[in-house]
Every structure is written in structure tokens, then in C-alpha cells.
Prior knowledge:
32% of the residues lie in helices and 13% in strands. By secondary structure, the protein is of the alpha+beta class. The strands form 3 sheets. The protein has a 3-stranded mixed beta sheet with strand order 1-2-3. The protein has a two-stranded antiparallel sheet with strand order 4-5. The longest helix has 18 residues, at 170-187. The termini are far apart.
Amino acid sequence: MKIQMKTTLVHWSLALLVTAGAAFSLTSTAGAAQDEKGEKPAVTEQADAVSDADKAVIAAQLPFYPMNTCVVSGKPLDEDAKNVVIDGNLYRTCCSRCAAKIIKDSTEARKDIEAAVIAAQKPLWPNMPCPVSGEAFGGEEMGDPVDFVYGMRYFKLCCGGCKRGVAKDADNVYGKISAAMMTEQAKTYPLTKCVISGEELGSMGDPIDRMYGTTLVRLCCKGCVRGFEKNAAALAKQVKDARIDRRRGKDAKEASAPKPEK
Length: 262
């Protein structure tokens, strides 16, 4: 049966991504407020002054964040992890002390994060040409493709000149990539039932497709969209786990909506 793909993409700033269990955020931006002595406020004080712009950055980049350990100490991130926004980029640390180090100098941490983004997302690149120029990869004139990270998203480009195109309109450019990912992942989707209702996919018409970061999650109907938005991260993880099970030769377990905590 030919499935008509729904290419409606999730807006990067969905409020669902900053859940009640998410870590509180710290922020450090150029021109941060200063105290009476001309000094920047302490890190803990900055936590109380998170701007709406920084909240939007956290919501947009958290689904793509490639590390589950502190970018400073290497310790596992838990429910007390701190989100730090610097120059429009998200950094996650295990504690306020590590957050302070990032605020002081984020250069090396950014390099580590970009390397992790490439390692995590490059293997998922869909079968498509350069999303900026439309040029096919492998041409003699262009040379080898260029790996580029913007925010927390990976872009495979035909040349360095296309980096400007990404920076000019990153959401629109990535929209093409995300749509291609949806098409490819639908072909090998590991589950047969809706992750929210448990109904068979296709039993209520074409599945409703949503992306959480680089992971496709399929729903049976529009009525399940709200349930997805409330638990997107957990549902996406179940889909990824099902893919891993399939690669290991195991039967993929059907995902279901996480039960709310009492």
C-alpha cells in the first residue's frame, strides 16, 4: 500500500521539550547584566534571568543534543542537569560549578559538542543532494562534502560557500533534510502500532508523522498528536530502541505512551 507521507514538521520551539522534569537553565550572553561594581552576576543569579530567547534555544536544540554526559566533567546527566545557553548554543552540565566553567570559556566544549553532533547525525543523512545548492555530492568541481554543524543540527554541504545559506535560513534548509529523513525512516519503521493509542498504523488512514530531533514517530490519527507532544522524548527513545532490537535480530517491542507519574 502506497503511503502518502505527511511532511508537516514539528516546530522547533514546542513547549513540550521543556518539561516539568527538565533541568533549569542558566544563560550567558554577550552584554549580560552587570551589578553595581561592574561585575557579572554569579552563575546562580543568572539562572533567575533566563530570557525567552534562551528558552526557545533550549526547546529547539534539546531534541538534537548529542551527549548524555556533562560536557565538562564527563559525568552522566540526570534530572539535576543544567542547561547553559551561550551565543545561541546549548551546553548541558552536571552541576553549577561546571556551568560556571562553560560560561567562562566554552571554546573546547563547543568543539566536543560539534564532533558529537557529526558522529550522531551524519550516519542518518538521507539520500539527497546538498540542501542549499541542490548539487549532487561527489562532483569533481566541488570535491569532498563539507560537514557543518549549526546549532545542534548537522548539514552535509557540497562546499564551504553553502554555510552562508544555512546560516541565513537554517530552519527552512533543515526542513528539507527532515522531510527526506521522514520518507526514508518510514520505509523501515520498526513498529506497526501507534505509540499513543496502540491502534494499528493505517487503520485510520495514512499515519501522522512527527519528528523528534532526527527520529520519526508515527501516529494513527490527529487525535494522538497531543499525547506525542507531551511525551515526545520518551516516545522517540522507544522507537530508537525498537530499531536497535530489529538490527540485533530481535522482535521490536511495540512502544506505548509513558504512564504519567503519580
